[in-house]
């Protein structure tokens, strides 16, 4: 097992937990999917993560400025109405969310002392977010 990759994954989880000690895998996956897409509809997030749209809506609310049910949120995500389908919301990173993701990707540098170099790992980590959490690919 690549111990450098394991340490990098641990740093990623610690970065999320520093934001919110109770953060779950779905919230992490949603943030990663939005970061990778730039802007994406809630229906598409639900398909990519493998959860129902109501779970995406709740999680996006938690990760927004106002939070879920009016509580203070994390201000990492925001949304706007989709001009093509007003029932769908388009989700994107806020400036704070972009900063969070820059910090996160900076933590994903794997120390490869054997090779005498460092290699970055954001692509494989973000690829994990494309696999639905229920283990079944959506079609």
**What percentage of amino acids are in beta strands?**
15-25%
Indicate the low-confidence ranges by residue numbers: 112-139
Shape annotation: globular
Whole-number count of domains = 1
Computed CA radius of gyration, to the nearest angstrom: 16 Å
- Measure the end-to-end span: 32 Å
Q: For this structure, what is the CATH homologous superfamily?
A: Winged helix-like DNA-binding domain superfamily/Winged helix DNA-binding domain
CATH topology (level 3) name:
Arc Repressor Mutant, subunit A
CATH architecture: Orthogonal Bundle
- Total strands: 5
Q: Which sequence of SSEs, written as H and E, runs from N to C? A: HHEHHEEHEEH
CATH class: Mainly Alpha
Q: State the helicity in percent bands.
A: 40-55%
- Order of the strands making up the biggest sheet: 1-3-2
Reported for the largest beta sheet, the result is: 3 strands, antiparallel
Q: Mean pLDDT, as a whole number?
A: 78
Structural class: alpha+beta
Protein name: HTH marR-type domain-containing protein
GO molecular function: DNA binding; DNA-binding transcription factor activity
Organism: Aerophototrophica crusticola
InterPro entries: HTH_MarR-typ, Tscrpt_reg_IclR_N, WH-like_DNA-bd_sf, WH_DNA-bd_sf
């Amino acid at each position: 097992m690549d111990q450098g990759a394991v340490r990098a994954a641990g740093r990623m989880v610690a970065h999320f937990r520093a934001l919110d000690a109770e953060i779950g895998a779905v919230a992490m996956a949603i943030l990663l999917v939005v970061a990778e897409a730039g802007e994406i509809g809630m229906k598409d997030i639900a398909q990519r993560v493998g959860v129902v749209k109501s779970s995406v809506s709740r999680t996006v609310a938690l990760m927004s400025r106002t939070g879920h049910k009016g509580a203070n949120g994390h201000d990492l995500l925001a949304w706007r109405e989709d001009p093509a389908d007003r029932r769908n919301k388009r989700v994107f990173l806020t400036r704070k969310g972009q900063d969070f993701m820059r910090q996160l990707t900076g933590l994903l540098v794997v120390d490869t002392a054997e090779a005498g170099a460092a290699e970055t790992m954001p692509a494989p980590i973000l690829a994990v977010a494309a696999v639905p959490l229920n283990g079944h690919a959506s079609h």
